[in-house]
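Researcher: Next sequence.
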Amino acid sequence: MFEVFSRSYYLGRLYVTPTDGEHALMHSEQHERLNEEVYASGEGLEPLDTPLVMKLESRHFAVHGGANVPTNTLALPESMLEGTDVRNPPSLREVFLARRDRARQLLEFAGGWRSDSAGAGRSNAGT
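Model: Next structure:
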C-alpha cells in the first residue's frame, strides 16, 4: 500500500472521503499493520494504536484506526478537506506516511510525543 518515497516519508494511494468525526481515520486492521511495520522499534511490547502521521497536500495530521472505515480509505473530517483539491469523494489520492523519526519530530513539535515507556509514540496532539 505504501512504498519508500524519501528518508522522511512513504508514499501511498488511498481513497480520501469525508467523515463526521473529529479525527482522521483509516481501517483499524490496516492502521495496526502500518503501525507495526513503520513505528514499532522491536523493543519490547509496543502499542499498535499509536496515531499514524500522514500528509495530504501540505497538511499533516494524526490518523487513528476506525472499524467502520473501508480498507484503503482515509476518512477526513470536513474541516480537514476544506482548502484541498479533493473533489467528488471518495477520491483516489497520493498520501504521505511519515516514517518513525519524522513522525516523532512532528509530534514532538506539536507536543504529542511522550518519551516515557508507557506512552512512547502516543500522540496527545489530536491533529
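Model: DSSP finds three helices and seven strands in the chain. The chain has one domain: 2-109.
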